[in-house]
Structures are given as structure tokens and as C-alpha cells.
Amino acid sequence: MRNVFLFLRRYSVFIIFLVMQVIALSMLFTDNRFHNSVLGMVTNEVAGSINNRVDRAEEFLSLSEQNKKLREQNAQLLSLLPSGSLMPDSALQLVTDTFRLDSIKQYRQYQYFSAKVISNSVFQQQNYLVLHRGTAQGVEPNMAVVSVDGIVGTVVHVSQNMSIVMSLLNRQSKVIATLKKGSGLGEVGWDGKDPRYLVLTKIPKTVVVKQGDTVVTSPYSDKFPPGLPIGTVHRVEQDQETNTYILLVKTAVDFYNVQHAYAVKNILQDEMEELKKKMNKE
After folding, report:
1. What is the pLDDT of residue 194?
2. pLDDT at 274
3. What is the pLDDT of residue 38?
4. How far apart are CA 221 and CA 161, in angstroms?
């Protein structure tokens, strides 16, 4: 208490000045319309500036949640793409009645699940990614993994909330691919050298291939939806032993910076596997 009194005694003149200044300004802005309007404008401008900064701060802090919602929305939209649907062939139908079948009925074949990449390697011979999504969130082994730029890899191991993905940058990874222009069917793999490039083999020499051609997933793949980008042709070489082309393909995905991905479930996978088992028994 003694220190308070000493402070007031020491700065009493300055404190009285401030009190009188506040009273004078209050009387000025209260009784004078011009000064009152100026004060209102200045106050509104300062308040607006402060509110703008607060809104920016709140928007920045909510970016993570907004990105999560956008990824979930993208997963729903990707599941509705035409490439994710299967239309039955109804060109020839055997009917015993005069009722017509709906010839345009489509079945959704692929379902997308958004996931965050929490670990990724690119400099090993066997590279993997870890997704923060597992069996509790619908991910299963052998599911395809893609990003907004193109395909990433295949799920190989799954826990309750995590999953391990074999990257395309893995010597054991093989994906059936074709040229986007509709010709040539081959196999994409990685030679373990440059993470920026894949190798597409088994393309017949009868196919016209040019630098810059787009390589996409094949309609014959049982994991990946057809037509997803894999990369673009960077260099064309000839394999003299097999009379085919060897194509160096620049990856569509920047594997140095993969932060978000989508696990893709082939809803008809179990049915396809069952048919393969029956065929093998014959």
C-alpha cells in the first residue's frame, strides 16, 4: 500500500493531467457534432481493422479443419465419377416377358476414402508411405492409393488406424498401364534410380509413341480405376531382344511432396476374385 501512495505522489501531476485531458476530450466530442462524427469514423476504422485481423487469424487456425472437409468432399465426388461406375452390357438380353430392362442403369464400382500421409520415403529401393487411416476407417489390404495428380501405390498392410502403402517407387510395384490416346498396353515399374521417373515396358513397336504422351491406368486393372494419370513419356528407347519399346515416364505425382491421398476400394473386387478362383479350379 505504501508503494501505491508513493507512486501516486510521485506522478500526481501527470495523473491529474491525464484525467483533465480525458474530460476535455469527452466534452469536445460530446458537444461538437463534427468532432463526434470524426471520432465515430476513426473508431469504426480501428474496430474494422482489428476485426479483419481477428478474422484472418481465425481463418488460418481453421484451415486444417477446412482442408479435411474438402478432402472428404473430394472423396465423395471422386466416387461418383463415370470412371468409378460400371454399366452392364445390355446389347443382347434374353427375356421371357415384354417388360423392358433399364439399359442405362449404372453401378458404382469404386469408392474413395481420403487420408493424410504421415510418412513417406523416396530414396530406398523399397519405398513405402504410411496413411493415417486404417480398418476402422474402411481401408483394406490391396486397395489402390491415388492423389489428385495421379496414382501413388497399393495398400499392403493395415492396422486399426494406420495403413502402409507400397509406393510406385518400389522395385516390387507393377501396374498395368496404357497410353491415353488408346493404344499400347504395358507394365509400369521402377528401376530404383531416379524417383522422378518410372519405366514402362512391353509396348509393341507397332504403336506410335511420342515424347509427351500421357500414360494412364488400364481398364484391365483390378485395383486402379481406368484412365488415372501415371505420368508422361520422357524418353523412348527400343528393346532389341523383345522387339518392344522401353519408355521412361516422368511421374505425374511429385513423390517428394505427397501430403494427402485417397484409398480406392473396388466394390466388385470380391466378386472378381471369386470368379478367378473358380476359373483356376477348372
Report:
1. 94
2. 81
3. 56
4. 27
- Which amino acid is present at 139? V
Beta strands in 121-255 (DSSP E): 126-131, 144-146, 151-158, 163-170, 175-179, 185-189, 197-204, 214-217, 229-239, 244-251
46 in helix, strand or coil?
helix
* CATH classification number, 70-86+106-281, choose in 2.40.10.340, 1.20.1250.20, 2.10.70.10, 2.60.40.1180: 2.40.10.340
Q: At what angle do helices 12-31 and 33-61 cross, to 10 degrees?
A: 100
**Residues paired with 251 in a beta bridge:** 231
CA distance 25 to 21: 6
- Give the residue among 242, 223, 199, 80 at the shortest CA–CA distance from 145: 223
User: Given this model, what pLDDT does residue 162 score?
Assistant: 92
Among 155, 206, 203, 145, smallest CA distance to 177 is for: 203
Given this model, what pLDDT does residue 110 score? 86
| Cα gap 27→200, rounded to integer Å | 83
pLDDT of residue 90: 39
Spans of all domains in the chain? 2-61, 70-86+106-281
Q: Which residues of the chain have pLDDT under 50?
A: 85-104
pLDDT at 102 (0 to 100): 46
pLDDT at 166: 96
